[in-house]
Design brief:
- The complex is a heterodimer of chains A (255) and B (120).
- Chain A has helices at 41-52, 112-120, 127-133, 147-154, 164-168, 170-174, 181-191, 199-207, 220-224, 231-252; strands at 5-13, 27-35, 71-74, 77-80, 93-96, 103-105, 108-109.
- Chain A is of the alpha+beta class and 255 residues long.
- Chain A folds into 2 domains: 5-109, Beta-grasp domain (Ubiquitin-like (UB roll), Roll); 112-252, Fumarate Reductase Iron-sulfur Protein, Chain B, domain 2 (Orthogonal Bundle), CATH 1.10.1060.
- A 5-stranded mixed β-sheet of chain A has the order 2-1-5-3-4.
- In chain A, a hairpin with a 2-residue loop joins strand 3 (71-74) and strand 4.
- The longest helix of chain A is centred in the last third of the chain and has 22 residues, at 231-252.
- Chain A starts with a strand and ends with a helix.
- With 120 residues, chain B is mostly helical.
- The chains are: A alpha+beta (255), B mainly alpha (120).
- The interface between A and B is medium-sized, with 19 and 15 residues.
- Bound molecules: iron/sulfur cluster and FE2/S2 (inorganic) cluster.
- Residues 159-165, 181-182, 185, 225-227, 229, 231 of chain A line the site of iron/sulfur cluster (SF4).
């Protein structure tokens, strides 16, 4: 059994009900939290909520890096709380809400600011929709895809919509209208899918100033992505696609 | 006009930036090593006459393009986005200033090449 040690955990909190006209700021609260080799950042927050201060708010669900709801800034770097461990921070740790998002309460941010961009790129197979418009209720045949066709987009399909890449992206910080790494990676994922027919609609979004062209290839999004999606690569492949699409539009007109 | 709707010049600047980046990485280190380190140190001796002839040929033009013009646009693009990151604008004036400077550098380099060619 690993022995139990203690570490100081600083949690950045914000309580909207405490706001006064003069003061509306987050504040830090410090806790001594026991930990072992297997105590995650999320475990620490749960310990604090259960044992020390039940007023603390944060989101979580799966505890296994799959739901994407436990994103926090851990010592300034975007991390999933359930995938990062206290043992990595023997000298203390500071947990803050994800950067670049509006804080709703304590560690909970307004994810809507990411979801609007996600929605804008239609992250789903578009053919089904068209079929509905044509009165087809349901495809009777299953979609077929070769392993090679699958391999094209597979890497980009692992996104769990955690938003860590948005907290890492300085361009999203400067311009919240920027579609952003995660959504652009998903746009690319569906554009590469042999079953999809929505590329023309997505390119309209990608081609704009707030699409792929807002990216200056900082690359931090790919460093922090817990699923190794490599959104930076997707965005920059998207630039090639966008340049092509704009050239075609120039010579052929809007199709 | 609908075929130009929503178009902008960013892909052009990005294309020049990408090409310039490749040139920066591939050619510039070699050029600097030869002309800025080895030659001044006397490690290698450059035959100036042969060099002048080569510079006036099509190779000279390629050299100007790969070592001066494209890297200039690469640098201009970086500086422009750097200005944007520092919140120093990113508007029209930075476009004019950065790519204008790169265009000026390119034009003078090309003029220099023209002056070297025998048909000038
Ligand atoms: S690309 Fe990675 S970091 Fe961004 S939302 Fe998806 S899983 Fe999270
Ligand atoms: S709790 Fe689901 S990703 Fe961390």
């Amino acid at each position: 059994m690993s022995e139990q040690r203690f570490v100081q955990v600083e949690v950045v909190r914000y309580l909207p009900e405490n706001k006064t006209p003069e003061k509306d700021e987050p504040f830090s609260q410090f806790f001594e939290v026991p930990y072992t080799e297997s105590t995650s950042i999320l475990d620490a927050l749960q310990y604090i909520k259960e044992e020390l201060d039940s007023s603390l708010s944060f989101r979580w669900s799966c505890r296994m890096a799959i739901c994407g709801s436990c994103g926090f800034m851990v010592n300034g770097t975007p991390k999933l709380g359930c995938k990062d461990f206290l043992r990595n921070y023997p000298n203390g740790v500071r947990i803050a809400p994800l950067a670049h998002f509006t804080v709703e309460r304590d560690l909970m941010v307004n994810m809507e600011e990411f979801l609007v961009h996600l929605e804008a790129v239609q992250p789903f197979l578009v053919e089904e929709q068209q079929a509905k418009a044509q009165g087809v209720q349901k495809y009777t045949e299953t979609y077929q895809q070769t392993p090679a066709q699958l391999a094209k987009y597979k890497q980009f399909s692992n996104c769990i919509n955690c938003g860590l890449c948005y907290a890492a992206c300085p361009q999203f910080g400067l311009n919240p209208e920027f579609i952003g790494p995660g959504a652009l990676a998903l746009a690319h994922r569906y554009n590469l899918d042999s079953r999809d027919h929505g590329k023309a609609q997505r390119m309209k979004v990608l081609n704009g100033h707030n699409g792929v062209w807002s990216c200056t290839f900082v690359g931090f999004c790919s460093d922090v992505c817990p699923k190794k999606v490599d959104p930076a690569a997707a965005v920059n492949q998207g630039k090639v696609e966008s340049a092509k699409s704009m050239l075609i539009q120039m010579f052929k007109g809007n199709s | 006009m609908s075929r130009f709707k929503g178009l902008h010049l960013e892909p052009l600047w990005w294309g020049l930036f990408s090409a310039g980046g490749v040139c920066f990485a591939v050619f510039l280190p070699a050029v600097l090593l030869v002309f800025a380190v080895l030659a001044p140190l006397g490690v290698i001796h450059l035959n100036m006459n042969a060099l002048a002839t080569a510079a006036g040929s099509i190779w000279g033009l390629l050299f100007v393009g790969a070592v001066i013009c494209l890297p200039a646009f690469h640098a201009a693009h970086r500086i422009r986005h750097g200005l944007h990151d520092l919140k120093l604008g990113g508007g029209l004036w930075s476009v004019v200033l950065c790519y204008g400077a790169a265009a000026l550098i390119s034009a003078s380099a090309l003029w220099g090449w023209l002056a070297l060619t025998s048909w000038f």
